[in-house]
Structures are given as structure tokens and as C-alpha cells.
Specification:
Blueprint lengths: L6 E5 L3 H12 L3 E6 L3 H6 L8 E3 L1 H6 L11 E11 L6 E16 L2 H14 L3 E4 L4 H9 L3 E4 L25 E8 L4 H5 L9 E7 L3 E10 L3 E10 L5 H5 L5 H15 L4 H4 L12 E4 L4 E2 L3 E3 L5 E4 L5 E2 L7 H18 L6 H27 L5 H13 L1 H12 L10 H12 L3 H6 L21
Helix pairs in contact: 1-4, 1-10, 10-11, 12-13
The structure holds flavin-adenine dinucleotide (FAD).
Amino acid sequence: MSNTKRKVAIIGAGIAGTTAGLGLVNAGFDVIIYSDRDQASLRNDVPPTGTAVYFGKSLEYDAEVVEDLYDIGTSTGMSVRIFSGTGETRTPVIEFDSAFNYRAQAVDTRLRADDRLSRFLARGGKFVVRAVTPEDLDAIAGDADLTLVATGKGGLSALFPVDPERTVYADPQRHLLLATFKELDRADHQFAYRSSDGARHNWFNIHADFGETFFGPYLHKDLGATRAFIGFAKPGSPWIDIFNTVTDTQSARDAVVKLFATYFPEDVELIDQLEPLHEDPHSWLLGAVPPTVRRAVARTKSGHAVAAIGDAAVSFDPLGGQGAQNAIVQSVLLIRALREHKDKITYEWLQDQFNKHWDHRAEAATEVTRLFLGDEKYKTHAELLFQAAAVNAKIGSAFFDFLSEPQPLLGIQSREQIDNFIANLAGEAAETVLARFKAPSQLARANALERVTVLS
Ligand SMILES: Cc1cc2nc3c(=O)[nH]c(=O)nc-3n(C[C@H](O)[C@H](O)[C@H](O)COP(=O)(O)OP(=O)(O)OC[C@H]3O[C@@H](n4cnc5c(N)ncnc54)[C@H](O)[C@@H]3O)c2cc1C
């Protein structure tokens, strides 16, 4: 009997390529993944693409492709602190500590992709090490029933024109510093001054003018329980000069300590204990992502349809934590659709799938990212929701639901809709909730022997 399996070619073996590859092998397709690096090099010679926290719902999508392999890197909430000013004029503006209504998981993208690739190979998937050129892609697509381009933000993404109607920003909105550190001793005790759930809550420290920082539990591919830091500097922020001093793991650690000493001194005694991961020279990253939505289906020179997935299709500013989650949801929706679709896979069918993904998640994920970026469109949202979160725990948790399920944000646009959102959660008028808000005058500091009550 001849082999009637449909052939799929995937270019790129990051989270998007390996998830789609494993899912499609599981669904009975004959799949080849092409990668510019071999499996060991993907794991050991490059930094992780990002911290790639899965917030809630994306873990459910992921489970359709691979069982949950990780019990480290889990977080259960977010401790938020917002400040303005510098030096003598530095003032705390807001503090709240929210439990997530879900589980979040931060696992090294290199480990996730490596585990997927191993399973893909064990189930008969083929892996070819080759940097695919546009000419190669034409030949590869000519030989396959479906070709997916999962080459990330760079790579072959340029084959897919930017969609000006769906792309909001022309430039990167933040300069980024990512660094990973060893876990601290007695972490739960040390983190207790910030959160009710010790070391399991992430930190989100914001400076109203200069940028944001994220700090949370992380599973490193070799060293296990660690802490991931991401700094997000706004254009023109003095933080950019601090980030630009980073050349290795030690200078990354020194830059993070300097940032906290200057802008978030309440936490510096804890941060000062951090040790770099000298064992992994790729445990830090500097960069900036131009948030871009592409027309995710294109034709090669000879007219074969190819579809982009993951960052190659839509790249987000990482502040809203949407990129990897979006890649997973897009891959899973496509796998589900391909299980049902037995006809020829055409350009129009692929375009239809991308539009469905846009409607299902990608557009909302773009809007949630704008909310976190403090985009003009969402200034009122951020102001009201942060203040309401500071006086009502349910509102803080609901705010972070947007990271897991961004879609409801599309229905909360006007001032009235924001007020209704607050009122429905609080069981009283938004005005009453917001009237209780007072900026804190002092915040608890690291190493305090007991949890210090916030004076207001
Ligand atoms: C600082 C930071 C923090 C982040 N935090 C989060 C978060 O909390 N939550 C979240 O969901 N997302 C987050 N992200 C985004 C997330 O990391 C990415 O969206 C995701 O990892 C992208 O995966 P990908 O497979 O599409 O691309 P990539 O990981 O870039 O993989 C592409 C692969 O293709 C290969 N390749 C490229 N060109 C070719 C070629 N011509 N031929 C063959 N192979 C090729 C590359 O070498 C690479 O291995 C963050 C990103 C950053 C930068």
C-alpha cells in the first residue's frame, strides 16, 4: 500500500516549529522540520528567545500536543509596585499583590523546544539541519502538502509583508534586558515582604516614566529552579544606559542590582544576593522587538502557498507576555483544523485559518500588549484598573486574567465599560471602589524581619 500520509515541511525549531511538528506527527502527518542548528546547538549555543511564561489558558492548549513535563517555574500571582520620580522626589504610587485565577509556568524555551523535538523524532518525525533560503523554500514547498515558516522574528519572516492595518507601532516600544539568576536560599521567607505566597508570586515593578521590570520563578534547562528578570526600558529612559553596560552574565547581574539600587531600593537587599548563571553564558539577552503583524500567508517564487506561525507571523512586545502563548494557540488551532480538513490545503484555506486565529486570540493579544505598554488608547484602563486592584483583590486577579485570556478586553473599551467591569467584580459602584484608593506613603523593604504594614 502506498504511503498516503500528507506531507508537512516546517522551517525553524523554536517553540512554534516544534509544537506544530509534534502536534502534526501525532495527528498522522509526515513531517520534516528544517533547522539552521542541530538539536544540541539549539539547546546549548543560543539564549532563550524570551522568558515565555505561559499564563493559564495556553497551558491547556499546550496539553493537546504534549503532556506537562515541568513542575518547576510555576508562579501563582503578581506583586505590583508603581513609582514615579527619582531621588528625593521618588514616590510610591500604587502597590497590590494579586493571586492569579490560574497557574503560570515559565520554562526555558530551549528546554521546551528540545523536549518537543525529542518526542517528535521518537514518533518518526524527520529533522534536517539546513539554513533554508527563499530558493530552498520554493523547492521544499513544491514537495509538501503544507509548508509552515516558523523562523522567528528574523529568518524568513520578511517573505510575509507587514500588515499595516493590524500593525500598531512602527518601532520597538521597549529596550529589553533579560537575565537569569540562581534561586535564593529560603526564598519563601525572603520574598514574604512582597507577597502572600512567598516566592511563588512574580514581581512587576514599574517606574511611571522609565519602564517596567519583571522578576519571577523560572525553570532553566540545566540548572532547574532559577529566577528570570526582564527589564523593559521606555525610549529615552536612563535605564537604556544601564542595560548597555551588559556584556556577560556578571555584568548582567551588576546592571540589575544597579537598576534596583537606584529605582527600587526597597528590594535591593534581596536583589543584591542574586548570583549569575556562569554555567550558561547564554543566560542573558539584550534587544528590542518591533511589534509586527504580518500577512501570514505568502506564495513562493513558483506560486506555492506557505504560512507563517509564531513570531514569524506576529511578534509582540514582550511586556504583555503574549508571543509564545500566541504561537501555541495558533499551532493548536491549525492542528485541530488540519485534522478535520481532508481536501487540498490552499492559499485561501491557510488565509482563512490565520484570520480565525486573529479573531480568536491574536488581535486581543495585541490589544492586551497595548494595555500593558500604557498606550494612549488604554491610559484610562490602566489608571482605573490599577487603582481598583489596590483596594479590591478580585480586580487585581481579573486584570491578570487578560494575560491568560485576552479576548474579554475587546469588550471593555469605553469608560462606562471599564466602570461596569470594576463594579461587576466588586459588587459595588466603580466610583465607590475608586474612592477608597490612597497612594501608599511607604512600602515594605527586603530583609525586614517581619512583614511591614503599608502605611497610608
Ligand atoms: C525578553 C522576552 C520575554 C518574553 N516573555 C514572554 C512571555 O512571558 N510569554 C510569552 O508567551 N512570550 C514571551 N516572549 C516571546 C516568546 O519568547 C516568543 O514569542 C517565542 O519564543 C517565539 O518562538 P518562535 O518559535 O516563533 O521563534 P524562535 O524561538 O525565534 O525560533 C525560530 C527558529 O528558527 C530558526 N531559523 C531562523 N531562520 C531559519 C532558516 N532560514 N532556516 C532554518 N531555521 C531557521 C532559528 O534559529 C530558531 O531556532 C518573550 C520574548 C522576549 C524577547
